[in-house]
Specification:
This protein has about 350 residues and is an alpha/beta fold. Helix content is about 45%, strand content about 15%. The strands form two sheets. It has a six-stranded parallel β-sheet with strand order 2-1-3-4-5-11, with helices on both faces. The protein has a six-stranded mixed β-sheet with strand order 7-6-8-9-10-12, sandwiched between helices. Helix 10 (about 225-235) packs across helix 11. The radius of gyration is 25 Å and the shape is elongated.
């Protein structure tokens, strides 16, 4: 024998209020007095009532769900940012569905199709390269999208990033200021705007000091790729020809590079080579790494992302916005003066 489902009418009767009052209590953003809320929730708990969110979504046309697309979570920056994003959206009455994808166009297209099938109210695309065609498909479906920690060369796409160009420039200025002249760079995935801007700012800073990159490798934002790039850059290379400092495009790779330098190549960080990362993930502050890095202001980035997305949900005609937020360089023990 099946269990009889409790209805909102029964809750209203038990609480001594109207059925519309019950609906308001369980509708995020709706208005109800504290007294009514207390009575309705007490009655719902006594009866074992749960509101039918899917049915409400069908009636209102609003699912109160935000789809988040992410390419990888092994970089500590993204789990931390996703937690902040989920908390911020929950405070606004929304819930998050996370969809994992590879950065291949076909896989991203498949995932976007899945997200739209869920009738989400909006999409946040984090660490993925979203094409203009997919963005247009979302707009045609009436689903706004914000890119997080990426941007595309499409004026119709809203995006929130740290100021990666300025961050790269800060690293160059800092290393040059310490006295380094042979300075290398390990790039991330070259299809990412974050990678391109960090390297461009870094090269601009070196050029201002009359320098060029002494060495360059590509780690593709993976720890193994970064280790291989470091080995290629240092193994079997005469000491005088090695970089004395490395800028690594994110902390996830920089921590792996430090491990390769110390444990595979027998070098001392920072005495033999200084290392700088980008993100300021929690592990960067661990005593084992003590990594100098540029901090991505995740709290402010998330706040701006939520603000832009909710504005677009409420007002589909709102103009797209591209926001870049400056972050500080955090000096720790992985860098020093090569002469000192």
């Amino acid at each position: 024998m099946g269990v009889t489902k409790i209805t909102s009418a029964e809750v209203a009767k038990r609480a001594g209020v109207s059925q519309s009052a019950v609906s308001r209590v369980f509708t995020p953003g709706a208005s109800a007095s504290a007294k009514t809320v207390a009575k309705v929730r007490a009655a719902a708990q006594e009866l074992g009532y749960r509101p039918n969110v899917l049915a409400r979504a069908m009636v209102s046309g609003k699912s109160r769900i935000i789809g988040v697309v992410v390419a990888y979570l092994n970089n500590q920056f993204y789990p931390d940012a996703l937690e902040k994003l989920s908390n911020a959206l929950q405070k606004q009455g929304y819930h998050v569905l996370v969809f994992m994808t590879a950065n291949a166009a076909s896989d991203i297209e498949r995932v976007v199709d899945e997200i739209l099938d869920y009738q989400v109210d909006g999409i946040v695309a984090a660490s993925v390269a979203m094409s203009s065609e997919l963005s247009e498909r979302c707009r045609a479906a009436g689903v706004p999208m914000v890119l997080f920690n990426r941007y595309q060369d499409d004026a119709q796409m809203s995006a929130v990033t740290s100021d990666n160009l300025a961050g790269g420039r800060k690293v160059a200025d800092y290393l040059v200021g310490l006295g380094h002249r042979n300075i290398g760079y390990i790039a991330g995935w070259e299809g990412a705007s974050t990678q391109r801007d960090r390297e461009a700012g870094f090269i601009q800073g070196l050029a201002a000091a009359g320098l060029t990159l002494h060495a360059r490798g590509v780690g593709n934002f993976s720890s193994e790729g970064a280790k291989n790039a470091a080995r290629d850059m240092f193994d079997g290379v005469a000491t005088a020809d090695r970089p004395t400092a490395l800028f690594v495009a994110n902390d996830h790779m920089a921590l792996a590079v430090m491990d390769a330098l110390r444990f595979d190549l027998g070098l001392d960080v920072p005495r033999d080579v200084s290392v700088v990362g980008y993100d300021d993930v929690p592990a960067a502050a661990w005593q084992a790494y003590d990594l100098t890095t540029v901090r991505q202001p995740a709290n402010r980035m998330v706040a701006q992302t939520v603000d832009i997305l909710l504005e677009k949900i409420e007002n589909p005609a709102a103009a797209p916005r591209r926001v870049q937020i400056d972050g500080p360089l955090i000096e720790r023990g992985s860098t020093h003066n090569p002469q000192g």
